[in-house]
Amino acid sequence: MGMSVMRVEVVSNEEHIYSGEASFVVVPTVSGELGIYPRHEPIMSLVRPGALRLTVPDSNEEVLVAVSGGILEVQPDKVMVLADIAVRSTELDTARAEEAKRAAQERLAHAKQSNDDEAQAKAHAALAVAIAELKTLDYLRIHKD
Questions:
Q1: Is the pTM of this model over 0.85?
Q2: Which sequence ranges form a coiled-coil region, renumbered to this chain (predicted)?
Q3: What is the gyration radius of the CA atoms in the chain, in angstroms?
């Protein structure tokens, strides 16, 4: 592995969503989008719903993953994302994501009215996934050649 490449692991529920090399990674964190190049100083951050983008070495290919939240850990030669839920962009569907977002918003409203904390937490999680998917699809739409 040269100076210009780092190892990237995106893991969700023990499932590897992406495992490989990248020359650049953009992670949606709670403090904004974070661009990470190899030899980045070590940091940890919370991930917020959005599009995680990986640039594959020796190609201009970009891999997109919708992440609903989680934890980012950066080492100089490795980036680890422990995502709550992660979906590769190739598996995304706009209509389904829009529908999921609407359904989650309705469930959230009902849960708030009935003061059901558990239902609220579940609805929030579902909403985060839908938002992440829609942000990723937006990014794809804007950057399609």
A1: yes
A2: 87-114
A3: 16
Please write the tens of the pLDDT for every residue from 16-74: 999 999 999 999 999 999 999 999 999 999 999 999 999 999 887 899 999 999 999 99
Contact present, 72 and 81 (Cβ < 8 Å): yes
What does DSSP assign to residue 18? E
d(CA 82, CA 64): 16
Angstrom distance (rounded) from CA 87 to CA 66: 5
Q: List CB contacts of 38: < 8 A, sequence separation 6 or more.
A: 3, 4, 5, 6, 23, 76, 77
The one-letter amino acid at 4: S
N- to C-terminal Cα separation, the chain = 30
How many other C-beta atoms are found inside a 10 Å radius of the C-beta of residue 29?
17
What is the DSSP-derived secondary structure letter of residue 23?
Answer: S
